[in-house]
Amino acid sequence: MGEGGDGRDAIVVLKNVKKAYRVGEVVTWGLRGVNMVVRRGEFVSIMGPSGSGKTTLLNMIGLLDKPTSGEVIIDGIPASRLKSKQLALVRNRKIGFVFQQFNLISRLTVYENIELPLIPRGVPRRLRPKLIVETLLMVGGDKSWLRKKPTQLSGGQQQRVAIARALVNRPAILLADEPTGALDRKASRIVVETFKKVNASGQTVIVVTHDPEIGHCAERMLKISDGVIVGEVKPDPSKCILNTLRG
User: Fold this and answer.
1) Domain membership flag for residue 195
2) Residue-wise pLDDT tens digits, 57-94
3) What's the total number of domains in the chain?
């Protein structure tokens, strides 16, 4: 399940991915054999309740953890076979992360937060300002934010800064883990609009969420339960937070 088929090349492929966690003699399965394909330029949501395995799955796609068995292929790279330093390099170049709690560094300015991924990438300092400003504007931010600290911005503004930070390296894949979980309804709409905008430009977006109003905004919606993708549902745009009337 979870395989797209519209002719676009696959950018994420998981083949029978399993993940077990052992504590003493007790083994807990986070994933029990996930098969999925995400095509380049897709907007995919992965939905499931707490404990369903969606965070473990995101960690596999984001190369934050290795499977117990199975294969993970990211943009043509068989990541399951890579060593830690190689994984870190692929993460930096191929994947941008957006988290529920923003994970911005409060002592740094917005400019400095967005700049962070460019440093290990080796982007020359003279080229960074243009990239940073372009990316912040692309996600609906404002240049007046650049010298502010994150605490001087609203939650929705901070999440847009976090999205800009995730995109500044022009990664192949944008991963978002419950990106609206800490936001009110108005800010959530703004964040989803941002995802739709960057996806329309050709960016692959994968959002993990438990909220149907977020899940229905995607192009494809996968459902995970007990560590297995149990189905694919065609999203209903009328149920997307951008189109619902309450709130």
Assistant:
1) yes
2) 999 999 999 999 999 999 999 998 888 889 988 998 89
3) 1
Residue 27 has φ and ψ, to the nearest 5°, of -115, 125
Amino acid at 34: V
Give tens-digit pLDDT for 93-141.
Answer: 899 999 888 899 999 999 999 999 999 889 999 999 999 999 999 999 9
Which whole number is the average pLDDT over 174-199? 92
Q: Is residue 28 part of a domain?
A: no
Which domain does 180 fall in, by range?
Answer: 39-63+83-239
Pick the closest to residue 214 from 183, 241, 244 (CA basis): 241
Q: Using CA atoms, how far apart are residues 187 and 202, in angstroms rounded to an integer?
A: 23
Distance CA 118, CA 124 (A): 8
Q: Is residue 14 part of a domain?
A: no
Distance separating alpha carbons of residues 176 and 217, to the nearest angstrom: 14
SS (H, E, C) the chain: CCECCCCCCEEEEEEEEEEEEEECCEEEEEEEEEEEEEECCCEEEEECCCCCCHHHHHHHHCCCCCCCEEEEEECCEEHHHCCHHHHHHHHHHHEEEECCCCCCCCCCCHHHHHHCCHHHHCCCHHHHHHHHHHHHHHCCCCHHHCCCCHHHCCHHHHHHHHHHHHHCCCCCEEEEECCCCCCCHHHHHHHHHHHHHHHHCCCEEEEEECCHHHHCCCCEEEEEECCEEEEEECCCHHHCCCCCCCC
Name the β-bridge partners of 45.
207, 221
Q: Using an 8 Å Cβ cutoff, are 33 and 16 in contact?
A: yes
Q: What is the pTM of this model?
A: 0.91
